[in-house]
Please model this.
Amino acid sequence: MHRVLIVDDEPVIADTLRTIFGKEGFDACVAYSTEDALVRARESAPDLLLCDINMPGRDGLELIQELLREQPDCRVMVLTGSVLGLRRVREGTRGLARPPSILIKPCQPDVLLRQAGELFLTA
Model:
């Protein structure tokens, strides 16, 4: 069973995503901030990080970079509510060994789950 850590500062979104992934057999947990996400990631070593970018305090790009320094095998999906932020996300993740999957909110559950599955197919 793949472990997914869902990070979004909007609890309704994070909790909904946890339900979607949980129904598909993922071991899903949530965090509502970058700081909480790092604690949870260190405890559970997720296989997949699904995170928002624009959050108060440290943003999702900082989370991705720090988590991947500690857990380089973790796959990453980015959910952002801003089409304008795509360039920033691409620039901020350019040097990663495995590029993240980037999706725009709102995103249909089947698209989200398909993208997650594809990340596990790539070596």
